[in-house]
Amino acid sequence: MSDTPITIESPTLGAKLAAEGFGTFLLVFGGVGTAVFASNHFTDPGATSAVYVAIALAFGLTVLVGVYAFGPLSGGHFNPAVTVGAAAAGRIPWRDVLPYIVAQVVGGVFASSALVLIGLFGPDNWLATAQDAGFASNGWGAHSPGGFGMMSAIIIEVILTGFFVLVILGSTHPTRGSAHAGIAIGLSLTLIHLIAIPVDNTSVNPARSIAAAIYGGGELLAQLWVFLVFPIVGALIVGYAYRALFDGTTTS
């Protein structure tokens, strides 16, 4: 029997950051792209609910695809709140959090910029109309699809981000996780959007919120702080709670 130690190779930090950047690009390009293209095209009465379903599925499907494509490299976060929640739960080192978030924000901004570039060559006034409508940004009050206020946005972002992180931590657990984690994660994000689109256009992801708001206008940029702070709050609560409540072990 050989006494040569077994070395386990893991992706470099650069590979992880590239995966997070590309994955977040896919999420924003697919989700926000569906929102801005579909909402500007299907404007007949009665079509709104169908657009909501299409947007919810787009976000869920992009995460599902991204988790299987990039998850083996970086964990498939594509979301600063998920990264913070994972660090709080002890899944990744805190030193990786800031680089992950930078990669995610950059990937998201590249994606929304690509959508704007497509719009520049679209029908007359398409881009101006999309930006006047908020460019699928998150917001409350006059910028909420259902007219909900700031506290509604805060509460739903904390709850649903926490729920999303809980699903991710449970389905990707090192010993109790599922080989089908990507399906659970993608479907949970779809469900989250079905719940929250009428309230605040659904964030649960600061990188997605930044990517849209930079083209949504000044009022939406002024409301952006809610969608930076409170998804992180929900993720931190669940990350620490998961480690305390679910990561205990026993021997029999």
Automatic annotation (TrEMBL):
Topology with respect to the bilayer: Multi-pass membrane protein
Keywords carried by this UniProt record: Membrane, Transmembrane, Transmembrane helix, Transport
Keyword Transit peptide: no
Record's keyword annotation contains Transmembrane helix: yes
Annotated compartments: Membrane
A Pfam family the protein falls into: MIP
Ranges annotated as spanning the membrane: 17-38, 50-71, 101-121, 148-169, 181-199, 224-242
InterPro entries given in the database record: Aquaporin-like, Aquaporin_transptr, MIP, MIP_CS
Top-rank lineage group of the source organism: Bacteria
Annotated PANTHER family: AQUAPORIN NIP1-1-RELATED, AQUAPORIN NIP2-1
The family this protein is said to belong to: Belongs to the MIP/aquaporin (TC 1.A.8) family.
The protein, known as: Aquaporin Z
Species this chain originates from: Microbacterium soli
